[in-house]
Every structure is written in structure tokens, then in C-alpha cells.
Amino acid sequence: MPSCRAGSPVSVPVNCASREPIGAEEPTVTPGGGITYMAVTDTYIYEWKTSKGWTGCRRLIVTLADGSRHHADFQFK
Predict the structure, then answer these.
(1) CA distance 75 to 56
(2) Are 75 and 16 in contact (CB under 8 A)?
(3) Which residues pair with 70 in a beta bridge?
């Protein structure tokens, strides 16, 4: 199972149309134990505490120990 680099994951606001970052990367807050791996389903779970004040789109970025970066975009109302 790959491990995350220190300081990862982070999130950044992105433009919903272009998907370009429009702000600085910020550390994420987790209410639980961080990233866990479920071998049975070969999936990762990350409990991410979002802010009620967020609107528009935001990108969650995970940097693995090997330096590779992976992301997922989310839209907030």
C-alpha cells in the first residue's frame, strides 16, 4: 500500500469551468484517522472535514511517498 508524503493531502480552490487553481493549497483537516486502505475492495477512504463556507469547486490533492500527485475535484453549493 502506498503511503502519503508529510503534509498531504491538501486542498485548493479551483475555477469550476477551467479547473485551474485560484488560490493557495491548504492542509486538510480529518476528524478520523486519515487515509485508510480497504484491501477487500482495493479502495482508499479519507474522511475529509470540509468548511460550511466553501462554495464553487475545490480540489483534493494527495501526494504519495514516490512524489506522484493524484487529485479529485468537488463542487460545493
Answers:
(1) 6
(2) yes
(3) 62
Distance of CA 44 to the CA centre of its chain: 12
Mean pLDDT, range 13-17, rounded to an integer: 97
Nearest Cα to Cα of residue 46 among 35, 57, 33: 35
- The percentage of the chain sitting over the pLDDT mark of 90, rounded to a whole number, equals 56
List 67's β-bridge partners, or say none: none
Predicted structure pTM score: 0.83
In the prediction, which pLDDT does 24 show? 95
The answer to whether residues 59 and 14 touch, using CB atoms and an 8 Å cutoff, is yes
Q: Which set of grid coordinates corresponds to residue 44?
A: 482508499
Cα 21 to Cα 16: distance, rounded to the nearest angstrom: 9
